[in-house]
Amino acid sequence: GAADQLIDAIVMQGKVNAARGKHTEAIRLMREAVNKNASLGLKSGQWLPLYELGIVYYQQNRYDSAIHYFGAAVDIVEQNAGNVFGGEEARKLFSSDARKVDLYNKIIASYVAVKDPRKASEYALRNSITAINSKYGQDLGFADSTLKADLVKAEEFKRNIDAVDASIAQADTKEKKNA
């Protein structure tokens, strides 16, 4: 409706200001959008202004603030993922927004930047669970602590493999430079 359009317009103004390097004004506008969204009780896209405000902070390397807003957006996305009804089309619509993927990537990268790999791993796991739940349109019982622990171990194993691969690639690059 009109309220959604107003919030979208404020977010767009914020994005334009951010692109022009006017970060203080961008933050002011994004906060205005977040506050209007909350005061109007809009449900459909309430995570978007939080995500966009997180982006402004992220682009300035203000990771603690980015984490705060990304985290609030993730909470809403995960809550909404459990409330998707309407069959395959509704699930497809919910899961097709590339910004949701970017949201998880940015919060994970922010936690890595502040040297908190435990939280980064937690959000990687949450991303996987949310994607699976929204794909199948139901909570598939990933709240089970044993299953979560197994998934955390699998994520840790993958990170270890990725770290080894990165080390090998770095060593190969150094070796080529010295040759």
Residue share in helices?
Answer: over 70%
Distance between the termini: 64 Å
Low-confidence stretches: none
- Tell me the number of helical segments per DSSP (H or I, 4 or more residues long): 8
Structural category is: mainly alpha
Spell out the helices and strands N to C.
HHHHHHHH
* Annotation, overall tally of beta strands: 0
Largest sheet: none
Overall shape: globular
The chain-level mean pLDDT equals 80
What report would you give on this structure?
This protein is an all-alpha fold and 179 residues long. 82% of the residues lie in helices and 0% in strands. It contains 8 helices and no strands. It has helices at 2-19, 23-40, 47-59, 63-81, 87-95, 98-113, 117-136, 145-178. Helix 3 (47-59) runs antiparallel to helix 4. The relative contact order is 0.08. The model has no long low-confidence stretch (mean pLDDT 80).
List the defining traits of the structure above.
179 residues; mainly alpha; single chain
